[in-house]
Structure to design on (126 residues):
Protein backbone atom coordinates (compact mmCIF):
# COMPACT_ATOMS: atom_id res chain seq x y z
CA UNK A 1 0.00 0.00 0.00
CA UNK A 2 1.21 3.50 -0.87
CA UNK A 3 -0.29 6.71 0.50
CA UNK A 4 -0.65 9.24 -2.30
CA UNK A 5 -1.35 12.17 0.02
CA UNK A 6 -2.64 12.76 3.52
CA UNK A 7 -4.41 15.58 5.29
CA UNK A 8 -5.51 16.33 8.82
CA UNK A 9 -8.54 18.58 9.29
CA UNK A 10 -10.22 20.28 12.21
CA UNK A 11 -13.66 21.58 11.26
CA UNK A 12 -16.08 23.91 12.92
CA UNK A 13 -13.86 25.24 15.71
CA UNK A 14 -15.97 27.91 17.43
CA UNK A 15 -14.61 30.99 19.16
CA UNK A 16 -15.85 34.21 20.71
CA UNK A 17 -13.29 36.81 19.68
CA UNK A 18 -12.81 40.54 19.08
CA UNK A 19 -11.87 40.82 15.40
CA UNK A 20 -13.18 43.54 13.14
CA UNK A 21 -12.78 47.11 11.98
CA UNK A 22 -15.71 48.60 13.89
CA UNK A 23 -15.31 49.62 17.53
CA UNK A 24 -18.34 47.57 18.60
CA UNK A 25 -16.78 44.42 17.11
CA UNK A 26 -13.68 45.01 19.23
CA UNK A 27 -15.66 45.84 22.37
CA UNK A 28 -18.34 43.15 22.45
CA UNK A 29 -16.76 40.60 20.14
CA UNK A 30 -18.53 38.10 17.99
CA UNK A 31 -18.72 34.47 17.00
CA UNK A 32 -16.18 32.96 14.61
CA UNK A 33 -15.76 29.53 13.07
CA UNK A 34 -12.41 28.18 11.89
CA UNK A 35 -11.82 25.23 9.56
CA UNK A 36 -8.28 24.07 8.88
CA UNK A 37 -6.89 21.34 6.64
CA UNK A 38 -3.19 20.53 6.84
CA UNK A 39 -1.33 18.43 4.28
CA UNK A 40 1.50 16.42 5.80
CA UNK A 41 2.94 12.93 5.55
CA UNK A 42 1.27 10.61 8.06
CA UNK A 43 2.79 7.40 6.69
CA UNK A 44 4.71 6.72 9.91
CA UNK A 45 1.57 7.18 12.03
CA UNK A 46 -0.43 4.82 9.82
CA UNK A 47 2.15 2.13 10.54
CA UNK A 48 3.09 2.90 14.16
CA UNK A 49 -0.18 4.11 15.75
CA UNK A 50 1.88 6.61 17.80
CA UNK A 51 0.81 10.25 18.19
CA UNK A 52 4.41 11.46 17.95
CA UNK A 53 4.42 10.26 14.31
CA UNK A 54 1.68 12.68 13.28
CA UNK A 55 0.43 16.18 14.06
CA UNK A 56 -1.20 16.36 17.46
CA UNK A 57 -4.75 17.74 17.05
CA UNK A 58 -4.59 19.40 20.47
CA UNK A 59 -1.46 21.31 19.45
CA UNK A 60 -3.14 22.43 16.22
CA UNK A 61 -6.11 23.67 18.24
CA UNK A 62 -3.85 25.54 20.71
CA UNK A 63 -2.17 27.44 17.87
CA UNK A 64 -5.54 28.45 16.44
CA UNK A 65 -6.91 29.37 19.88
CA UNK A 66 -3.87 31.54 20.68
CA UNK A 67 -4.16 33.45 17.39
CA UNK A 68 -7.91 33.90 17.84
CA UNK A 69 -7.26 35.75 21.12
CA UNK A 70 -5.18 38.46 19.38
CA UNK A 71 -7.55 40.93 17.66
CA UNK A 72 -7.17 41.67 13.94
CA UNK A 73 -9.04 44.18 11.83
CA UNK A 74 -9.31 41.80 8.88
CA UNK A 75 -10.11 38.10 8.53
CA UNK A 76 -7.38 37.95 5.88
CA UNK A 77 -4.76 39.01 8.44
CA UNK A 78 -6.11 36.60 11.06
CA UNK A 79 -6.12 33.64 8.66
CA UNK A 80 -2.58 34.48 7.54
CA UNK A 81 -1.36 34.61 11.14
CA UNK A 82 -2.94 31.26 11.96
CA UNK A 83 -1.51 29.59 8.86
CA UNK A 84 1.93 31.10 9.38
CA UNK A 85 2.00 29.98 13.01
CA UNK A 86 1.05 26.45 12.00
CA UNK A 87 3.82 26.25 9.40
CA UNK A 88 6.33 27.63 11.89
CA UNK A 89 5.28 25.16 14.61
CA UNK A 90 5.16 22.16 12.25
CA UNK A 91 7.91 22.39 9.59
CA UNK A 92 6.76 19.07 8.10
CA UNK A 93 3.48 20.69 6.97
CA UNK A 94 3.37 21.04 3.20
CA UNK A 95 0.18 23.06 2.85
CA UNK A 96 -2.44 24.68 5.05
CA UNK A 97 -5.93 25.60 3.91
CA UNK A 98 -7.68 27.75 6.48
CA UNK A 99 -11.14 29.29 6.46
CA UNK A 100 -12.17 31.86 9.04
CA UNK A 101 -15.87 32.77 9.15
CA UNK A 102 -17.33 35.70 11.04
CA UNK A 103 -20.86 34.78 12.02
CA UNK A 104 -23.38 37.63 11.77
CA UNK A 105 -21.05 40.33 10.41
CA UNK A 106 -22.37 43.92 10.71
CA UNK A 107 -23.46 44.27 7.08
CA UNK A 108 -27.14 45.05 7.53
CA UNK A 109 -28.03 41.86 5.68
CA UNK A 110 -29.19 38.40 6.67
CA UNK A 111 -26.42 35.89 6.07
CA UNK A 112 -24.74 33.01 7.84
CA UNK A 113 -21.35 34.67 7.81
CA UNK A 114 -18.50 36.24 5.90
CA UNK A 115 -15.46 34.05 5.24
CA UNK A 116 -11.90 34.22 4.04
CA UNK A 117 -10.04 31.12 2.83
CA UNK A 118 -6.28 31.00 2.36
CA UNK A 119 -4.28 28.18 0.77
CA UNK A 120 -0.72 28.50 2.05
CA UNK A 121 2.27 26.55 0.76
CA UNK A 122 5.28 25.87 3.00
CA UNK A 123 8.09 26.63 0.58
CA UNK A 124 10.62 25.34 3.13
CA UNK A 125 9.24 21.79 3.34
CA UNK A 126 11.99 19.27 2.56
Amino acid sequence: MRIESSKIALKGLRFHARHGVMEQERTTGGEFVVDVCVQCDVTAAVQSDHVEDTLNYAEIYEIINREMQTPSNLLEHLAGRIGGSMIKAFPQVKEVVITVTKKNPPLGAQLEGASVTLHLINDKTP
Observations:
- The helical segments are 23-28, 43-48, 57-68, 75-89.
- The beta strands are 7-17, 30-39, 95-103, 113-121.
- Residues 18 and 25 are 6 Å apart (CA to CA).
